[in-house]
Specification:
This protein is α/β, with parallel strands linked by helices and 67 residues long. It has one domain. It has 2 helices and 3 strands. It has a 3-stranded parallel sheet, with helices on one face.
């Protein structure tokens, strides 16, 4: 069976998170990212975005249910 390489990056819509997503996509990873702002998306269309605020338990539960 082929190895599946999947990552979840918090804060993937900007800064270090966005750059990390870009690098890992280039290395063949399936990338999912979170952002507090659902309309903020990284430039890479292959990143699966999840609206999620890691400071909010309700937001985390909603984000996980949406997966």
């Amino acid at each position: 069976m082929a190895e599946s390489r999947v990552v979840l990056i918090t804060g993937a819509s900007s800064g270090f998170g966005r750059e990390t997503a870009r690098i890992l996509l280039g290395r063949g990873f399936k990338v999912y990212g979170t952002s507090r702002n659902p309309s903020a998306k990284p430039q890479e269309p292959d990143v699966g975005m999840i609206a999620l605020d890691v400071d909010s338990d309700n937001s985390i539960q909603s984000g996980v249910k949406g997966c």
